[in-house]
Design brief:
Layout lengths: L11 H17 L4 H11 L2 H21 L7 H13 L4 H11 L2 H17 L4 H17 L2 H9 L4 H20 L4 H10 L3 H18 L5 H4 L14 H10 L5 H14 L4 E8 L3 E8 L6 H4 L2 H12 L6 E5 L2 E7 L6 E2 L16 E6 L5 E5 L8 E4 L6 H15 L5 E7 L22 H23 L7 H8 L7 E7 L1 H5 L5 H14 L5 E7 L9 H5 L3 E5 L4 H8 L15 E5 L3 E5 L1 E2 L6 H13 L13 H14 L9
Helix pairs in contact: 1-3, 2-3, 4-6, 5-6, 7-9, 8-9, 9-11, 9-13, 10-11, 11-13, 14-16, 17-24, 18-21
């Protein structure tokens, strides 16, 4: 590879030029940098080895600069990063790949996106359970300071909340073991986490009150919040004191919020506050002449100003309500609403008022979604991964099949991703097997269109009957026309299918136009509410919307049918959603927990299959299998027929 070294002529520049040429040739021949350096070390002095290493660095640098640069769409880039993080790819691998293929500005975006995702993503229930068990193992084998260090190393706000709960439980146990105030103040000084510091200081105060020894928090902690004395030292009450005294009361939080708004030249008056399972809601009245637009996008400023005082890690949602504006402050000790806690399925169902579960509102009140209402009939919904959309869908199906017999409710399900509805196959409520591709979904929707027409023909046979409600009011319970709920998961894939999208769109538009009156309800869901895929005419025919957390503000606008409503991007995931009809409600969806408690889930499915059905259902005479066979028959006999794409 190298020319013989000869220092007698003293021409170092010629030697360097020869070495440069030799290195370039070696790189072209496929030698690695390490192999080239080894050759140089064997043949040349140290000064030339250093020069060779410099040349190699310059060649690599030039190669990187000369590579083609691809400008990625930032939304696409964020989605790819998010999916990679969820799949378990570590940050170094992601950054290495992006450094190779992205521009410098995009690389910086990737770094910030990774930080945002790690901080805000909603971990799976399995991951939360795993983290909890890890923390329990730490405190059972190590001092509590080790738990503090572990929590400080966690970025994700939801996993940190689990740690805070474990800290509270263990501080309470230490409180009962008669540890002195100095022990807890020392713990506070050992932690860099302000929440843990406050937990330790509050526990020290409880000890001081119990022992009658004074404690100056200005010496041992930040002392910025005055405490109320606990009136009792009963175990449960004391535990609640430790957990709750570290935060402001809702009244104090409301006053602090109003004062902060004043700093932004926004005049407002505190009205009231409510504690919900997912968030706390503070309602204020804006001053005369103050536009809502001034507070609409103030969420990030509040994180910066009130992050520590209110425990804000993400921007709160800001909404207009009658008589004021509300700020939804995420709860650090978030609660989930479990399906099994809200239903016993005792008594006879109301066959005239078929509904599905909505969720729990900020007052803790259960809200149902009445499919029989003219303000609902059909529902458009969507949201990103881990938003809670699938749980909402499963809760709706499980409730319908367990509450109502097949003579009252029938189901038509489409699940092209094949992960959500498979557990419901074989139920007597199904009009057909769960559709798992675009073709079978098109068949199912065409069947429902024909069923709809037959129902309207039935109405025409009777005087003054135009809707299913009027029909059942006259003939039930002797004869009931069952409502059909068609639930389609991930419509984006269906409406992107080149072979069947036109047929599916046509059937959907027919159903959305008039199927509600015939008792056929379409619930359409997607992770990607692309305005270029889901036709505006289709979107406009959904009177009800359910928006789960979205990645992009424009996704929120599409789902909610309002170009200015970006609120879904501020939702907290895992079942936190907006339900829109004539007004917008923020609800926590019910969690089915079919993976955590499979026995309960299977029990309800078994009861649904074996439940007593005392009613006689009206039948159109349309058999699904025969109908599909006729579709294929038309296609084979007439190439120009309606379904010639088959």
């Amino acid at each position: 590879m190298l020319p013989p070294y000869n220092n007698t002529n003293g021409n170092t520049e010629i030697q360097k030029q020869q070495l440069w040429t030799a290195i370039v040739q070696a790189k072209q021949d496929g030698l690695s940098n390490e192999e080239i350096v080894e050759n140089v070390q064997e043949a040349l002095p140290d000064a030339m080895v250093f020069y060779a290493e410099t040349v190699l660095k310059q060649i690599d640098f030039r190669a990187k600069l000369s590579r083609p640069v691809v400008e990625f769409n930032l939304e696409f880039l964020f989605q790819m990063i998010y999916e990679s993080v969820i799949a378990g790819t570590n940050d170094d691998e992601i950054l290495s790949i992006c450094a190779e293929h992205c521009t410098l500005n995009q690389y910086e975006f990737v770094r910030y996106a990774l930080e945002y995702i790690h901080l805000n993503r909603m971990p799976s229930q399995w991951e939360q359970n795993n983290v909890y068990q890890k923390m329990i193992e730490i405190v059972s084998s190590s001092p509590i300071e080790s738990l503090f260090e572990h929590i400080e190393s966690i970025k994700n706000i939801y996993l940190k909340q689990i740690g805070y709960k474990v800290v509270q439980e263990n501080l309470y146990n230490l409180f009962l073991s008669n540890k002195g105030t100095g022990y807890f103040t020392d713990l506070a000084n050992k932690s860099r986490d302000n929440f843990i510091k406050n937990y330790c200081c509050r526990t020290a105060v409880l000890v001081a009150r119990a022992t009658g020894k004074p404690l100056d928090l200005k010496v041992t902690g930040n002392g910025s919040i005055l405490l109320k004395e606990p009136k009792y030292l009963d175990s449960e009450i004391a535990n609640n004191e430790i957990a709750s005294l570290n935060v402001l009361t809702m009244g104090q939080a409301g006053k602090l919020l109003v004062d902060t708004l004043e700093d932004f030249n926004i005049n407002a008056k505190y009205i009231d506050a409510k504690n919900g399972p997912t968030f706390n809601r503070i309602r204020v009245k804006l001053g005369r002449g103050v536009s809502y637009k001034k507070v609409e996008d103030i969420g990030n400023d509040l994180v910066q100003q009130l992050g520590e005082e209110l425990g804000l890690k993400v921007a709160p949602m800001v909404s207009v309500v009658p008589g004021g504006v509300v700020f939804d402050i995420p709860r650090l000790d978030r609660q989930f609403a479990y399906f099994r806690d809200y239903f016993t399925f005792d008594g006879e169902p109301d066959i005239y008022s078929v509904s599905i579960p909505g969720g729990v509102d900020v007052d803790g009140t259960y809200v149902e979604i009445p499919l029989y209402s003219d303000n609902v009939t059909h529902i458009l919904g969507g949201g990103r991964t881990r938003g809670g959309k699938s749980q909402f869908e499963k809760a709706a199906i499980l409730y319908l099949v367990r509450r109502y017999p097949p003579s009252v409710v029938r189901l038509a399900l489409s699940d092209v991703k094949r992960v959500t509805f498979g557990k419901f196959d074989g139920l007597p409520h199904l009009v057909a097997p769960v559709a798992r591709d675009a073709e079978s979904t098109a068949n199912l929707l065409d069947y429902l269109v024909e069923e709809m027409e037959l129902r309207y023909q039935e109405f025409e046979r009777h005087t003054s009957i135009e809707t299913i409600a009027q029909y059942n009011s006259r003939f039930a319970p002797d004869c009931i026309m069952p409502r059909v709920i068609c639930l389609i998961d991930e419509c984006f894939d269906l409406l992107s299918d080149d072979n069947y999208c036109d047929r599916i769109e046509t059937a959907l538009m027919k159903l959305l136009a008039k199927a509600g009156g015939a008792g056929i309800h379409v619930l359409l869901y997607t992770q990607r509410p692309d305005k270029n895929v889901i036709d505006p005419l289709i979107r406009s025919n959904f009177p009800a919307k359910t928006a789960f957390v979205t990645t992009r503000p424009e996704d929120s606008c599409i789902i909610l049918g309002d170009d200015k409503d970006k609120r879904a991007v501020y939702l907290l995931g895992y079942g936190d959603f907006l339900y829109k009809t004539t007004e917008v409600l923020r609800l926590q969806a019910l969690y089915v927990a079919d993976d955590e408690d499979p026995e309960y889930f299977q029990q309800l499915l078994l009861e649904a299959k074996n439940q007593n059905d005392p009613y006689t259902a009206w039948k159109s005479g349309l058999d699904f299998d025969e109908f599909v066979a006729s579709l294929y028959g038309e296609s084979s006999s007439n190439d120009n027929g309606k379904f010639n794409m088959l």
